[in-house]
Amino acid sequence: MKNILPSPLQYKNNQLCFDGKTLESIAAKKRTPFYLYSKKILRHYYEYFSKSAAKNEIVSPLVCYALKANSNKEVLSTLKTLGSGADVVSVGELKKALSAGIDPQKIVFSGVAKTEEEIRFALRCGKKGIYSFNVESIEELELINQIARKEKRQARVAFRLNPRVAAKTHKHISTGNKTHKFGLLKEDIHEAVAAKHLWTNTTLVGLSIHIGSQLTEMKATVKAIEELSKLALSLETPLEFLDVGGGLGIDYTAEEKLKLASIDQYMATVSQALEKYYYSKTDHCPRVVFEPGRIIVGKMGVLVSRVVRTKTSDNNHFTIIDAGMNDLIRPALYEAYHEVLPSKSSKKMITTDIVGPICETSDCFGTKRKLPKLTAGEIVVIDNAGAYGQTMASNYNEREIAKEYFV
Ligand code: LLP
Question: For the structural domain made of 9-37+299-406, what CATH number should be given?
Fold first, then answer.
């Protein structure tokens, strides 16, 4: 089945349009490069994701959007209005989620390096603190218990299980293997559960997994849910939730367009795996937490840039644009593919490398791409830049951080 993931981009009369407006007109008075987002598409993905959970009979789903993918204020307030919770990994993200009005009881806090200050802040949120600290080590649990005791609070915690699976994705964003720094092995979780002194001011409310990002197929996910379920069944504590993490990918390439698991296939996989390995074996009925990032925001955004000049060297043609790896680091960091589109389509194409202004060879958005012969000032768009674009931007080479606009 072909996986159709809606996008705001479309050519109309050879003009590239974003949510129906031409890119030329949108960019006319704006300084490039800038990020451009579509609220319509953002809403589409969040709503599709939650409806698909309901359709697939996921038990009381709680969607905790992973802020690291895109923490723009309007993105967060839109998601909050739609009912989203948040997955945060720093006090900075936590504050952003709270200022968007997200209920602390819909916030999970992941990450291997939560500091004393961050734990204290999260414990003091609202009446009961946050929904869950997703704990990644025994040392962290010890610290949370200590701080909660001082604060006279009870911290809600979940263990992040390292399920020892190898997710098929780029090695930099695979997180579920025993050599990775993430999560706890099941033996260590059993040891922690048995250590009474760790539980005076903490309550075990859930278990979580997150095995990697830009997942296109579901084998490792099923295996991880099996491991999660076995562990949950082996614990005496009845759990309030099972958190299956994030990770569902989007179609950056033509190949991914054909083989990527759709949202519906993903939900059906999660639902069937939980039924098979957990719900069918017990009377307990914990709810399911999701931590999606990329699938919610990836397709809603593009990076808009202008051609600075072109250059030919030997047989190589370069289209030099004003966006660089400091604006969108994914191609440089993961050799990630992003489609680059001209603002006017043309039948006459040349083969060119699209490169940025940064003094590094890896500052390249694509090699040997087919594009029309562009000239200075023309607009090009880097597609699928809504996730891990602006949030990973830097000032490298003393460049300004690109602004973000909605249509
Ligand atoms: N939950 C946890 C604990 C995570 O570490 C992540 C992502 C997510 C949820 C959300 O995963 P998603 O649904 O977005 O795949 N910068 C990389 C991606 C790094 C992902 C890190 N963790 C990229 O640009 O591909």
Answer: 2.40.37.10
Is 80 exceeded by the pLDDT of residue 405?
yes
Q: Is the CB of 210 under 6 A from ligand 1?
A: yes
pLDDT digits (tens, 9 = 90+) for 31-78: 999 999 999 999 999 999 999 999 999 999 999 999 999 999 999 999
Q: Please tell me whether residue 234 adopts helix, strand or coil conformation.
A: helix
Q: At 310, is the secondary structure helix, strand, or coil?
A: strand
* Interatomic CA distance for residues 75 and 34, integer angstroms: 16
Residue-wise pLDDT tens digits, 287-333:
999 999 999 999 999 999 999 999 999 999 999 999 999 999 999 99
Burial class (CB in 10 A: 0-12, 13-18, 19+), 236: exposed
- Nearest-5° Cα angle at 83, 81 to 86: 105
Q: How far is the CA of 97 from the centre of ligand 1 (A)?
A: 17
Other CB atoms within 10 A of residue 364 CB: 18
Query: Mapped to the 3 state alphabet, what secondary structure does 178-210 carry?
Result: CCCCCCECHHHHHHHHHCHHHHCCEEEEEEECC
359 catalytic residue (yes or no): yes
Write down the pLDDT at residue 1: 46
Work out which ligand 1 atom sits closest to the CA atom of 213: 15
Which residue among 93, 110, 291 has the greatest number of ligand 1 atoms within 8 angstroms of its CB, and so is best to mutate?
A: 291
Q: Residue 263 region, left (φ>0) first, then alpha (ψ -120 to 50), else beta?
A: alpha
Q: Is 10 helix (H, G, I), strand (E, B) or coil?
A: strand
Looking at the domain that runs over 61-292, which CATH code has it been given? 3.20.20.10
* Residue 313 identity: S
Tokens of 181: 């720094």
Q: Where are the chain's structural domains?
A: 9-37+299-406, 61-292
C-alpha 212 – ligand 1 centre gap (Å): 7
Q: Encoding tokens for residue 94?
A: 């936590």
Token digits of residue 391: 């949030």
Peptide bond into 33 cis (omega under 30): yes
| 308: amino acid identity, one letter | V
Whether the CB of 292 sits within 6 Å of ligand 1: yes
Report the mean per-residue pLDDT for the chain: 96
Instruction: State how far the Cα of 2 lies from the Cα of 17, in Å rounded to an integer.
Output: 24
Instruction: Express each pLDDT in 86-105 by its tens digit.
Output: 999 999 999 999 999 999 99
Distance CA 297, CA 90 (A): 20
